[in-house]
Amino acid sequence: MNNGLHPAKTGLVAQSQLSSFKPQLVEFKNNSNSGLFAPIKPKKANYQALIQSLSQRFANLSINHKQLIALTASQLIGIVGISVVGRSLISSGLQNISFDRAKSELAIADINYNTKINQMALGLRSQSENPTLVKAASLYSSGQTLSQDLQAEVKQILDSTSKVNKIEYVTLVGENFQIIGNANTNRNGEIFNPDNLVSDVLANPQTIKASRIINVAELSKELPVLPAGLNNENALIRYTVTPVKNPETNAVVGALIAGEIVNGKDQIVKDTLKATSGGYSAVYLRQPNGEFSLATSLDQGELPNINQAQSNVKLPQKDLALLAAAANAKGSPVTAKIKLGNQTYAMAAQAVPNKIIETDEQATNVFDEKPAAILVRGTPETAINQLLANSFWVEVIAVNLALVLVIFWTLILKRGVVKPIQQLEQTAHKFARGDRYARSEISSNDEVGQLANTFNRMADAMTAQAIRLENQAQLSQLVNDITARFRGSLNTAHILEIAVTSTREAIQADRVIVYSFDENWAGKIIAESVDSDWPSTLGKEIIDPCFANDYVEKYQNGRVQATENIYAAGLTDCHINQLEQFGVKANLVAPILLDNKLYGLLIAHQCSASRKWQELDIELLRQVAIPIGYALEQSYLLEQIDTARYHAETAAIEQRQYNEAVQQQILTLLKDIEGASQGDLTVRSEVTMGELGTVADFFNSIVESLRAIVTKVKTSAIQVNTAIGENEAAIHQLADTVIKQADDISLSLVSIDQMRDSIVTVADNAKQAAVFAHTASGAAQENGQAIDQAVQNIFKLRTTIGDTAKKVKRLGESSQQISQVVALINQIAMQTNFLAINAGLEATRSGVEGEGFAMIAEEVAALAARCSEATQEITQVVDKIQRETNEVVTAMELGTNQVVEGTNIVENAKNSLNQIIYVSQQIDDLVQSISLATESQVKTSQSVSKLMQDIYQVSNLTSTYSHQASQSLKQTVEISQELQATVETFKVN
């Protein structure tokens, strides 16, 4: 298209095209000197430059030319492709037909090959019942010598059979494999068991037909004069072996063997060619070393007379793989395309069974790894080639007619497609310049019309998406500004005050309040921001009896209720009266959830008039209510933690003071016990409240009892000293009794020591209890439940923050989709710019007539530039949205990390509280041990009481004996003095 343009006005496109073609032109120029028209083979870089140049030239073409070239090329490719594929399918189908025909004709060759064997089998069956042959075999089997006349008669029968059937071998063999008689050279007495066929028949009486390879030496023993054509080569022979039975005993007494040489005999292949009207037929034998040799063949081709067929035609050496494949196929035919001379054949080959075992019911083919014979059949492909040649010209004519029709229809379709596309292009330019309401006119329902409809839908979607994104960006900014004011605050009143004030400013409402519920779903207004023209509602209590039954679950599930006019919303009179007292004309209600439970309502009032709430207002109130709940939940959680911490510290201080008092009491009690153990029975322990007070009181009782006993003993000693002079003997007896009483008192002292040990144990346990109680807390269980609740709330908060982060990420993905659409618009603008450049070039070439078109092209270029600028601005806005979205995601992740740290701190506090609970349990165990020790002391006191009773009885005896003490005065004096000295050690006053 650029041929003829002035070099100075071609622009960048023309320059790039010329530079792309420059190396190729040089190649042709160099070749012109050598007289060759063909160019030198270009390098890879030249190929790439050529492809790039052609692609650029095609891109610069008008839509008319593009449509013509594309439609013509596509139809031409389709027609040529169909032609080529059809020709390939036809050729492949005809080839398969030829192969199938060759396989079917191969079956005829197999029949002809087995015909002579079947004839031999029938002849041998009749001869196996010949009385002379049966008699000879029976006599030979019994070990008798045959007479000369019988031998001559056997040989005559075998010679006659050989001549009638035109076969080389007819032999009668006995059970010991020795020849009884044969048709040719006399070999009587020799062992004859070719390839163990006789052994198989004697072991399993049945007819066997087999194909075997026999060497020339073995063949010469039977035929001194070899058949023509063998040339000292191994021969392929067809055997038939039939058992000979004694009719009286039905026992096998021998075997009758017939054999025919295949080499050099063309009757098999000739019969095949007669039945199949020419072609190629052959029989190959497989040598012991694995090589294949020709046994017999005829190549008639498509000659009308079989007498003209050429014999002994071998397959080319490179095509003998067909025979190897047939040998490995074990009776299945294999095919190949082979050329013999000037004739091409569809060749089929099949292995002949090594042996066929015949019974009365069926015949069984047996193949081994090395079959002896391969049958080959070739079907000429002359007719197929002629058919393909004739169909070629038909295809050429059809292709030319199709091209004419394609060009004709291309010219017709050009008129109905180009104009709508140009109109669609102009509409796209308007939309790209920023006209959001530019839409394409749809004049048809074809693909162009559907494209225009798709463009209109895309423009509608983009416009709606842009508006929605603007609203979402504005909403996100407002919500972020509002929540940023109370984010991080843990003061409930401060949070609510900022929330209602900021929300009222954002949606320009007359009043915004927070209404909090109690346990009965009644409550009061705890926060308010109201215009000075309207009454305040702060602190008002509102009871709605219908709310608990009808609205709790709805608001719990996130319902946001917008009422434009309370009088037209179908509200009850009671509800309207409640709103009228605050001057409400329209309201907007959103739930505030605390720990996924309805805490209260965030309500906006319009008091001046009814109001149609915008979607932005509704969504703003919804999104502001969510972070209010999170902030309140954090505030309440912190308050609970502070309260629990205060109770724990107070309980710990009280427990420590109590333990210190208990420890002091224990030390005092131990000091008193130590004085009693040293003999001071005047000591008394202070009696206080609690278990230690009981122990002290019990100790005082024991000491008082001991003091009474000691006092009584002193009195008794004085009385004894007084009565010594009255009865010395009685005093002596009294002294014995007093000794016993002293022993009892000693036992009492031991019991008192045991009691002291028990009290010491109690003191030790009390000390341990004081150590454990130092870290205990009386409110451990309640604090544990509070911390568990705190952990659950933090986990829920972390889940909610995670969900919010996912939504923000999805918003980022949506902005990325906008970026993709903007990139598409930018690409359209670039293509439009290229079209404008090409249009300017066309206008320049058209001269004065193209000036108007040039102006239009310049305007289109300017519009494309404006479209690019608009897309850049949109890209900047989208980039800003993505950056802010990423910042929100980062903030969410930071909040999640902070929540995770808070969770770890609360879990650590919970672990510490569990340790406090464990210590408290240890204190309980120690108190139980103190109780057990106290019980032991009770038992000890009982034993002391019993001992005191015994002492009382002894004292009665002492009183009785004192009347008789006058006779034992001297001894009584000594005992009395000793007793008095002992009792003086106790302090009782």
Automatic annotation (TrEMBL):
<feature type="transmembrane region" description="Helical">
    <location>
        <begin position="392"/>
        <end position="413"/>
    </location>
</feature>
<dbReference type="Pfam" id="PF00015">
    <property type="entry name" value="MCPsignal"/>
</dbReference>
<dbReference type="Pfam" id="PF01590">
    <property type="entry name" value="GAF"/>
</dbReference>
<dbReference type="InterPro" id="IPR004089">
    <property type="entry name" value="MCPsignal_dom"/>
</dbReference>
<feature type="domain" description="HAMP">
    <location>
        <begin position="415"/>
        <end position="467"/>
    </location>
</feature>
<feature type="domain" description="HAMP">
    <location>
        <begin position="660"/>
        <end position="711"/>
    </location>
</feature>
<feature type="domain" description="Phytochrome chromophore attachment site">
    <location>
        <begin position="491"/>
        <end position="627"/>
    </location>
</feature>
<protein>
    <submittedName>
        <fullName>GAF domain-containing protein</fullName>
    </submittedName>
</protein>
<dbReference type="InterPro" id="IPR003018">
    <property type="entry name" value="GAF"/>
</dbReference>
<dbReference type="InterPro" id="IPR003660">
    <property type="entry name" value="HAMP_dom"/>
</dbReference>
<keyword id="KW-0812">Transmembrane</keyword>
<dbReference type="InterPro" id="IPR016132">
    <property type="entry name" value="Phyto_chromo_attachment"/>
</dbReference>
<feature type="domain" description="Methyl-accepting transducer">
    <location>
        <begin position="716"/>
        <end position="952"/>
    </location>
</feature>
<keyword id="KW-0472">Membrane</keyword>
<dbReference type="InterPro" id="IPR029016">
    <property type="entry name" value="GAF-like_dom_sf"/>
</dbReference>
<comment type="similarity">
    <text>Belongs to the methyl-accepting chemotaxis (MCP) protein family.</text>
</comment>
<dbReference type="Pfam" id="PF00672">
    <property type="entry name" value="HAMP"/>
</dbReference>
<keyword id="KW-0807">Transducer</keyword>
<keyword id="KW-1133">Transmembrane helix</keyword>
